[in-house]
Structure formats: C-alpha cells, structure tokens
Hints:
This protein is mainly α. The chain has a domain at 1-84. It is built from eight helices and five strands, in the order βαβαβααβαβααα. A three-stranded parallel β-sheet has the order 1-2-3, with helices on one face. A two-stranded antiparallel ribbon has the order 4-5. α2 links the parallel β2 and β3. The protein is elongated.
Amino acid sequence: MIGFENQSQPDKYMPARVLSYDGGTYRSLLLEENPKLVPTLTLVLYFGLERWKYGTTLYETINVPDEWKPYVSDYKMNLFEIAFLDPEQVKMFKSDFRVVADYFVQKRINKNYTPSKRVIKHVDAVLKLLSIFAEDDRFAETVAMPDKRGGVSMETLFDYKEYKGMIRIYLQKMHYTPEKIVEALKEDDYNISSSDVRSIIQELNDEK
C-alpha cells in the first residue's frame, strides 16, 4: 500500500509524521475483521525550489541517546525532491506527472517555464496540483478545453488562457461581435477557430 504526501515547504518533523501515517495504516488493517497486513510506505513529494534542509530519518529528527539506540528503532522516509530531478529522469515518467515534474525542474534551472506540447490526459487534476504548489497565478483558474484527442497540452492551455483574456476585453470593453473577434485575432496572427471563440464567449457568459 503506497501513500503520497505532497510538500511545498521542508518540515523538520516529516520523518515522525510519515511514521505516524504508516503506523495508522497498519492499525486500520489490524482493526479489520480478518486482518491481512500488506507492506505500507509513504512517498514524500517535495515541490520546493530550494533543497530539503532537514534530515530524512527519525534519528536526525529527535535526539536519541546512544544507550537508547539499541531499543529505539530508526525510521527513514522516502523523499523525492521533484525540482531537483535530472531532465532525463523527468522523461522517464509516462503519466501526466511528467508535465508536473517538468514545470518544477524548468523553474529551478531556468527560473521560468516554457509550456510543454505533451498531451495531458487528466487536465483538471494537473492544474489543481500546480495551482496549489507552483505559486504561479497562471494555474489559479482551472481551464478545461475540449480536445479531440481526449486531452490538451500545457502549451494549448496557456494559449487558451491568453485567448480568453483577449476575448473578454473585446466583448466587455470594445463590444465586438463574435465574428469581429475572430477577424481581430486573425489580424494579430492568432490561430484560433470560430467554434473555439464561441465556446470561450459562452464560458464568459456563464461566469456572469
């Protein structure tokens, strides 16, 4: 049984917290009518752009006298510093988490982010995770844009947000018709279809 704990900041007492999580899982299993224990572990996913500055074992967290150590079991947590993964390691992910990891690695290395063309299958879940841990207001609003392939890329989502902002201005301040908005966007070399413009207009009207 695998659990995940997401962290945006280092926590000095994380090894003890993980010990309590894993212990709680075993306790729940023991309370079942026919207990059947299975291996249990917690993976700590740390999304900070600075290195984790605390220990990863119980012995590094609390002061255990030498004479107690034969009787006090140490406990090591499984820590993954996502922003400090190697770009080649990021490419090994086959799930949408590759997009998430890529964001944090880029932010650490380049200080900015170039959206990926990789298709995201679970758009809502990815954007919600990034809106919490990325501290980037571009993810604050979850955007769901229909796509024939069953998903969209981060590049497409960022473009969609930009289009939505521009169309809001055309509608509310310039009072353009949908047809005139399409013409205006094409004049500025934006590649967006009439149907997508109408979908965004409908979304904006629904928000009123």
